[in-house]
Automatic annotation (TrEMBL), chain A:
Prevents the cell division inhibition by proteins MinC and MinD at internal division sites while permitting inhibition at polar sites. This ensures cell division at the proper site by restricting the formation of a division septum at the midpoint of the long axis of the cell. Belongs to the MinE family. Signal peptide: none annotated. It comes from Kosmotoga pacifica. This is Cell division topological specificity factor MinE. Residues 1-14 have a biased composition (Basic residues). The keyword Translocase does not apply.
UniProtKB/TrEMBL annotation, chain B:
It holds the Pfam family CbiA. GO terms for molecular function: ATP binding; ATP hydrolysis activity. Belongs to the ParA family. MinD subfamily. NCBIfam families: minD_bact. Keywords: ATP-binding, Cell cycle, Cell division, Nucleotide-binding, Septation. ATPase required for the correct placement of the division site. Cell division inhibitors MinC and MinD act in concert to form an inhibitor capable of blocking formation of the polar Z ring septums. Rapidly oscillates between the poles of the cell to destabilize FtsZ filaments that have formed before they mature into polar Z rings. PANTHER family: SEPTUM SITE-DETERMINING PROTEIN MIND HOMOLOG, CHLOROPLASTIC, SEPTUM SITE-DETERMINING PROTEIN MIND HOMOLOG, CHLOROPLASTIC-RELATED. ATP binds at residues 11-18. This is Septum site-determining protein MinD. It comes from the Bacteria.
Length: 91, 271
């Protein structure tokens, strides 16, 4: 007990590990963005939009075992990137 | 012909202006002819960092409005004959300047300087697009915190999208706290570099010297610190821009042994 008084309290661990994991998750997510012009012209995308929505809905519904009506898909463009926003409603 | 660099970041307050001023001074004190352009329209801080705020006659807005030429609007630094500043306008908004204006301004100055450093506003909106329009290379500044690093990642993506090759984008990590890294409470330079995947141009340890120098309006590399401490780090960065191979580990060596010196300084100082 006497010697315990002088012993330095050991920290569980620093916050670096959490920071590193979170950074990797954020950066990896962003790296998947693809500039629109490198894929297809905007007009072509407009024509195939519904088809893309259908495919995403079907994939997400199967993956999360929900009805397709519970999957909402939206497209937004930010600085030359197409952002696909998918909301899944779980009951 | 000048090498044109934009000094940029995603997050504000990471130290772009201080870094631009100090790299500019370090290059100019080595005989290079350097022009610093403050593209942070509406805020105008580079002149204050350089101690030139009372000498500004014309701003970048006067050049855009063709009242004066870019060369006529330049202000020479008090101590360094080879260092010039094109100041931002405080009354203007970013919308008053276009990427084409910036290209014209840099085009006019291109043949007259060895280096042109453009201090960009933070963020990815119009001001950012103006600042990068005429730059061939970029220095992305981040601090070791997550929001600054993730925003830097976004900026790197936009620079690449704008056609800048990965080899032309280099990273500076500012306000690096070595003691926190040792404690395991801060991301290491390897963690940051691994995630951003660009070359490291320099690591600037957190330092009170920079604040003191900015208070005086004298960049730290001119504040009687040449060759020492944090000034040495800016000098290393300038030399790397000139193509010299200096290990980034040298930036951190300026801090080595400082702990014990600081301890004795504090012990014997009064007040």
């Amino acid at each position: 007990m006497f010697f315990g008084f002088f012993r330095r309290k050991k920290k569980d661990h620093g916050s670096r590990k959490e920071a590193k994991d979170r950074l990797q998750a954020i950066v990896a997510g962003r790296r998947h963005s693809v500039p629109v012009r490198e894929v297809i012209p905007a007009e072509v995308f407009k024509n195939s939009e519904q088809d893309v929505v259908r495919q995403i809905k079907s994939y997400v519904a199967e993956r999360f075992m929900v009805n397709e009506e519970n999957v909402r898909v939206q497209f937004e463009e930010h600085n030359g990137y197409v952002v696909i926003i998918t909301n899944v409603v779980f009951h | 012909m000048a090498k044109v660099y934009v000094v940029t970041s995603g997050k504000g307050g990471v130290g772009k202006t201080t870094i631009t001023a100090n790299i500019g001074c370090a290059l100019a004190s080595r005989g290079e002819k350097v022009c610093l352009i403050d593209a942070d329209i509406g805020l105008k801080n580079l002149d204050i960092t350089l101690g030139l705020e009372n000498r500004i006659v014309h701003t970048i807005l006067d050049v855009v409005n063709k009242k004066v030429s870019a060369s006529e609007a330049l202000v020479r630094h008090k101590q360094l004959k080879g260092l010039f500043l094109l100041a931002a306008s405080q009354i203007a908004t970013k919308e008053m300047l276009s990427p084409e204006d910036m290209k014209r301004i840099v085009g006019e100055l291109y043949g007259k300087f060895d280096y042109i450093l453009i201090d960009s506003p933070a963020g990815i909106e119009r001001g950012f697009r103006n600042a990068i329009a005429s730059a061939e290379k970029a220095i992305v500044v981040t601090t070791p915190e997550l929001p600054a690093i993730t925003d830097a990642d976004r900026v790197i993506g936009l620079l690449e999208n704008a056609g800048m090759g990965e080899e032309n984008i280099r990273l500076v990590i500012n306000r690096f706290k070595i003691q926190m890294v040792k404690r395991g409470d801060m991301l290491t330079k390897e963690d940051i570099q691994e995630n951003l995947s660009i070359d490291l141009l320099g690591i600037i340890p957190d330092s009170e010297e920079v604040i003191v120098a900015t208070n005086k309006g004298i960049p730290v590399v001119l504040n009687g610190n040449q060759g020492h401490g944090i000034a040495r780090v800016f000098e290393n960065i300038a030399l790397r821009l000139k193509g010299e191979m200096i290990s980034v580990e040298k930036d951190l060596q300026t801090e080595a042994g400082k702990g014990i010196i600081e301890f004795f300084k504090k012990l014997f100082s009064r007040n």
